[in-house]
Amino acid sequence: MTSYVFGGGRFLDPRQDALLEGIEVLVENGLVKEVSDRPIHAASAQRIDLRGRTLMPGLIDAHIHIVLTEVNLQLLSDVPLTLLAAKGSTSMRAMLMRGFTTLRDTGGADYGMKAAVEQGHFIGPRLFIAGAPLSQTGGHADHRKRTQSAFACACCSGLSWTARVADGVPDVIKAARDELRKGADHIKIMVSGGVASQADPLESLQYRMDEIEAAVEEAVRWGSYVCAHAYSAKAIERAVRGGVRTIEHGNLIDAPTAKLMAEKGAYIVPTLVAYDALKRRGGEYGLSDYSLAKNEMVLQGGLRSLELCRAAGVKIGFGSDLLGQLQNDHCNEFTIRGEVMRPQEVIRSATLVNAEIVRQEGKLGELIPGAHADLLVVDGDPYADLSVFLGDGLRMPAIMLGGRFVKNQLH
User: Fold this and answer.
1) Which residues pair with 4 in a beta bridge?
2) 172, containing H or E segment
3) What is the pLDDT of residue 154?
4) Looking at residue 151, what is its pLDDT?
5) Where is the Amidohydrolase-related domain (predicted)?
6) CA within 20 to 30 Å of 359's CA: 105, 289, 303, 316, which one?
């Protein structure tokens, strides 16, 4: 594998509040070998002149669904798994070209998608997967219509393949064990109603405490953890008291629950861009009036949830949760958060905090010796202007994943 020395530009260390000048970085064998404020001499390395641009770590999205390729999820019921995988590969490649070198899929992608990337069959970011998320009957991931009783065969329907229903402690234990057996890096459970689901109230409290605790115990015993879809303060409180490690969305959190999260060391992964995009474009792609009404409820609480969590000291991750045709709004998450957070905080969410969430501290989210050589070359100063991330990578002339250029327009 070719080695490289990057120099002649500015360096973004997400632990620092300002860009650094005069830093050189040596990449060897897919890893960051050396970071120095003096010239690095490596005879076999190819020297890359950044010409004043910014070198920074690759971005991490901690809440994405690469195979939920339709805004109207019911359309996936007529999509074969082969086509679903092909569409997912297209989505992954687009995300990589926006600078996201790591994705945490929170429901849908399986070990086959992860292996396809690792083996070079698909071009995409490194993946951490949940497999099929777990839902109670009638919960957020029970995709049956009200006129249906039976479940569709998971081997035939793209929709049924992306979720599973498990009721009661024995069934939840079995489902969690099965997803871990099949290669899940974490377990996803649904503990409240959601926007896209058609049969559950947004404020509904899903899964009993013993069911939540059962999923957590199985994941922890495996050396993993549970993330939970939750909107209301009560749903979040129940999940955190049950041992859930990351709360997904959390738009309707209140101050006491944010304090509880901080005390328990739980993370929150807001996905504000999803609700902005659904309000503007969801109806165009078949989102129901019922879903649009629920979307309005959570949209109003989004920025407030960030403020409450910041005040309480909750660690805030970075997610997007965009479905299908809305994924080209991906990087709007940066500018939306920029309304209430400093650019440095937003970038830390998408680097350092998310590296902690996927348990890859020191390996992802920063460019230090021993880390994966996942890096971006950016035109401009991300700390001064978050819009550098917009435009589907337009202002990223180079993207490297694991020491290999997946985009290089520096020549």
Assistant:
1) 27, 46
2) helix 168-181
3) 66
4) 67
5) 54-390
6) 303
Q: Is the sign of the CA dihedral 133, 135, 139, 141 positive or negative? A: positive
User: What are the 10-residue block averages of pLDDT along the chain, 411 residues in total?
Assistant: 94 98 97 97 94 98 96 90 95 98 97 96 98 96 77 73 94 98 98 90 95 98 98 98 98 98 98 96 91 92 96 98 95 96 98 98 98 98 97 97 97 73
Of the candidates 191, 194, 210, the one whose C-alpha atom is nearest the C-alpha of residue 288 is 194
247 close to 240: Cβ distance less than 8 angstroms? yes
Q: What is the pTM of this model?
A: 0.96
Let me know if 52 is exposed, middle or buried by CB neighbors in 10 A (0-12, 13-18, 19+): exposed
The total of other beta-carbon atoms located within 10 Å of residue 364's CB is: 23
Distance CA 365, CA 58 (A): 7
- Contact yes or no for 160/151 (Cβ under 8 A): yes
- Those residues whose C-beta lies under 8 Å from the C-beta of residue 228, and which sit 6 or more positions away, are 188, 189, 190, 191, 212, 239, 244, 246, 247, 248
Cα gap 178→130, rounded to integer Å: 11
- The CB density around residue 411, as the number of other CB atoms within 10 Å, is 6
- CB of 363 within 8 A of CB of 371? yes
Cα gap 369→329, rounded to integer Å: 33
Joined tokens for residue 361: 């501290």
Cβ contact 34:25 at 8 Å = yes
Max CA-CA distance within the chain? 69
As a whole number of Å, the end-to-end CA separation of the chain is: 19
Query: With the C-alpha atoms ordered 133, 142, 327, 350, is the resulting torsion angle positive or negative?
Result: negative
* Domains contained in the chain, CATH given: 4-57+365-408 (2.30.40.10), 59-357 (3.20.20.140)
- DSSP string covering 293-339, please? HHHHHHHHHHHHHHHHHHHHT-EE-------GGGGGGTTHHHHHHTT
Using CA atoms, how far apart are residues 269 and 279, in angstroms rounded to an integer?
20
242 burial level (CB within 10 Å; 0-12, 13-18, 19+): buried
Q: Nearest Cα to 229, choosing from 88, 215, 217?
A: 215
Structure tokens belonging to residue 156: 């035939």
